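CORE FACILITY INTAKE
Project code: CF-77B
Contact: R.S. (postdoc)
Sample description: multi-component assembly, two entities in total
Requested service: structural model of the whole complex
Turnaround: standard
Below are the sequence entries exactly as provided by the requester. Do not edit them.
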Amino acid sequence: MDKILLKIPKKSEYMSTIRLTSSALSNINRFNIDEIEDIKVIVSEICTFFIKNLNRNTEDFEISYQVSQNKIIVTVADLNDGELSVESLNDDMSIMIIESLSDNFNYDFNNKTITFEKTKIGVD
Amino acid sequence: MSLEIEKRIQDTIIEIKPIGEVDIYTSPELKNQIFALIEERSADIIIDGESLEYIDSTGLGALMSIYKKMQENSLNLKIINLKPNIYKLFDITGLNKVFNIRE
């Protein structure tokens, strides 16, 4: 399993760079076009969720991609101080999209990380 | 990729064509430009998604604000030519039932 780490400022102007990187890494692993689109959307929505719900942005996002033959595991950590409330999960369009498109997901609000998995279709 | 917004103004209809990506960085620009047009023209709006490559939840939120603003002014909003990957997000969030979306 290869591991790639992207440390990037928590600023909205870097969102397209984050999406481009996510697509490129998914493409290396030969996900199909729909799966690559899903991975790009999920990563982008996780970062958007943090930007919307945790105001501090002096520290970076740390995005880790673990790429294996049949799946990708992505963890987005917001390295800023501050607290996320569980209420932020309610009625949030980002969360709706993340939960719909990922195969597995986990919110760790103490460490301000969200992790998801996407498995290739047709691979056990 | 950033966002360009093409506008074609006819008598009672304004056609808006977003070119590129509508996300947390660019959605305020789309919202502000369309709000200004609503104030200025008071016309129905068609958003043409032919060149819209990406939209995120904040972009969808901006469209919701535009929709509400237009309803307050008794104006109509129609969205056309959405790509399947974009329509998928309207479907997931249930907004395909809110907006008037045509092929």
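Facility notes:
- Strands of chain A lie at 2-9, 60-67, 71-78, 104-108, 113-119.
- The helical segments of chain A are 15-28, 33-53, 93-101.
Invoice: internal transfer
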